[in-house]
Design a protein that fits this description.
Elements: H1 3-14, H2 24-34, H3 55-83, H4 95-103, H5 113-146, H6 153-163, H7 171-183, H8 199-210, E1 219-224, E2 227-232, H9 234-239, H10 258-263, H11 275-287, H12 293-316, H13 329-332, H14 338-345, H15 356-376, H16 384-414
Antiparallel strand pairs: 1-2
Helix pairs in contact: 3-5, 3-6, 3-11, 4-5, 5-6, 5-7, 6-8, 7-8, 8-16, 11-14, 12-15, 15-16
Amino acid sequence: MGLKTLFDKAAPLFKEGGKLSKLYPLYEGALTFAYQLGDTTKPTTKTHVRDSADFKRIIIMVFLAALPVLFWGLWNVGNNSIGANSDAAVSISNHWQLWLAQLLGADLQHGMIYSKLVIGLCYFLPIYIVSFIVGAFWEILFCVLKKKPVNEGFFVTSLFFAMIVPPTLPLYQAALGITFGVLIAKELFGGTGMNFMNPALAGRAFLFFAYPKNISGDVVWVATNNDAFSGATPLSQWAAGLGDNQLVNSATGDSLSWMDCFLGNMPGAIGEGSTLLICVGMVVLLMMRVISWRIICGILLGATAVSLLFNVYGSSQHMAASSIMMMPFYWHFVLGGFAFGTVFMATDPVTSSFTKKGKWAYGILIGCMVVLIRVVNPAYPEGMMLAILFANMCAPIIDYVVKELNVKRRIARGK
């Protein structure tokens, strides 16, 4: 018996009048995950234009584009963990994680590529599972209560949330973070398509302010044979007075060049991995017209402009080249969550600006804000998360201003 046949036989139970009609959103969510519905526009529906790619296909494309970054991040966690231990075996303190690593055949001492992937998976998987289960519970609950269909967008939200938090984040904090993101930033404002800020980033921001010790952004966690240690990120090293020729990998002690950071050969959150692979995903999404090139170019333009302004000001004040104010703009592009945030978070079509000119303004605002936060605020050298959330709140205002200016221009031309 085929899967579609099972769905067809179960349909009467979930449709109106059926014994499980209240759970219809759950049934429809499972059905649309496997198949595309054949629903058509009704005669009473207002005229509208449809794109050939529905929402589910867009979500799948975003998910697939992020997979290379995810796999690199998993490998990077394992690679830096083994590199930090010399000849000692990597310690995985959680018993079931250790059991999983052994079950999958990981060599915790001299691990090759596969073993490094497994080590990273042992730390990523618990956070992702908790994020997915807790977030999906709230999504389904609200869909059942509101009698609305389950939306596939949460697959990306849960994945991105797990990729932008530290790999050792306590699981209860992961549950609290994704709960805040789904309930406060999304469902409270009407659910999918109505949220005014990115749910994954909102959840991370909640954890940043509620548990700053675990998610401060200025240290990075690495597994060792003594359980773990936290080392300074390249951004915090630069903020502490180290220049581009003095940055080191906090796990191995090796020097870090710009190319190392571009390729992702440094400790960090899984989503802060390889800028190269993030660019590959960006090209795919741009070719599929899933994300806006205007937003990306606006972010790069804004960050470059503000960085150059700080460079000029720092030179006039005779500041040392190691000051973060003197950091070249191209270094900002490869450090922290700049690249991942630019491609996968800032371009969220729901929380970004809709108008063409608004997209430019929205992107430039993010680029300016992230460099401003990194340079001016020594307590938080990252900046990308706060910059995107700030721009999310400004996006409706930006679109309103653009529309009003367009109306005034049309009125003026009419006169």
